[in-house]
# Entry
Amino acid sequence: MPATAKTKTKSAASTSATATDRRKAAKKNACKLFVLDTNVLMHDPTSLFRFEEHDLFVPIMTLEELDNNKKGTTEIARNTRQASRLLDEIVSGSLEGIDAGIGLEEPSRGLATGRLFLQTEAINVTLPAALPTARGDNQILAVVMHLAERHPDREVILVSKDINMRIKARALGLAAQDYFNDKVLEDSDLLYTGTRELPPDFWDTHGKGMQSWKEEGHTYYRVSGPLAPEMLVNEFVYEGSGDNPLQAWVKERDGRNVLLETLVDYGHQKNNVWGITARNREQNFALNLLMNPEIDFVTLLGQAGTGKTLLTLAAGLTQVLETKRYSEIIMTRVTVPVGEDIGFLPGTEEEKMAPWMGALEDNLDVLNGTAGEGGDWGRAATRDLIRSRIKIKSLNFMRGRTFLNKFLIIDEAQNLTPKQMKTLITRAGPGTKVICMGNIAQIDTPYLTEGSSGLTFVVDRFKGWAHSGHITLQRGERSRLADYAADIL
# Structure
């Protein structure tokens, strides 16, 4: 082949490659078109306003499935109705045609600037023979295929909380992703732990111009240095070694200055809480939060056997029965079964909740054993007194209530959505303390993950507030068998 022909072939190939690259770059930079699966709207009705400058497409099958799930009093039914109302407001409030897309800037009050498209025509796409066309999921996939063919210059992406739906979409060569806006963190290892180990040279780098004084049994240190801007109010700091290690928490922060206050040592028997003493550093931190009247909201994370429920109940009983700071303890949890459901339960609200509150009864047995001597009669009387001050409530009847001077415990909080968590925490009236506890590695609610759990949400949002605190309990104190099982299984 002559040199000129070779040169022409090369230049043609390079021109073709450049054009392809340009098309890819234009497609990447163009406004994306997201197709919403039904479960995204059921999970977060406001997801319509969470895609910023990108466009949304709602298939007719998504509307059909919303219609099928709107009845009932469950959280899903409520979310479905809210999503339908939002769609109705957007469509009825617009003077533009649905075909051209409805601008979201006005309905979302500036949160989103894209457009909303609804399916206005029948779409006939040939799906693989193995996929039955009667299924709603497959009809939504057909819509995505149609849009991808119609808009080759745009990225068309299916957004779904259903993992199998996303796998099927990718198998058909379609782009699919999870709904990320509800995730507080991508990696649960980045979640705030509430503690910080001070480096060995902390006092050398932060001791210059330090002020120190004692007040009401506590020692205060006002220090400044490079670590101070990173510290959060009510974050616990400790020295890992030394003859007299420091355990303190941050009470105030002002730029490069922080005020540290030493803790009450609840590991000592003289400071026991209902006969319970802290067995490790994190338990001591937790009891300082639970017993401090200035802290209104406490979150406790930790695997099974770290003492979350025991410490919380001990602190609650002490402040209800001894110091009379709160009038009673209210305990609630999500009724999500680990195995098969056991059907309808007889009795009152408290009696129906009793099977879910085995952890409460187990811990009360331990706490009754620490209530002092008095024989069987004394223990029975103490048990009756304690039970009269602990109320067990169902989450289903929490809307519209206000709790005054209560010690509110939300157990297994990892199974709550952020919206349910907001509903519960906003029940707190004057003088009420709220404690949320759970283990984000044990989530039983469908569509919730470690990153999107309501417990993760509140830990991240409340960090640094002057009247809240968080501790991740590290060491199990249940038994050597439980600790070993938690590590190897």
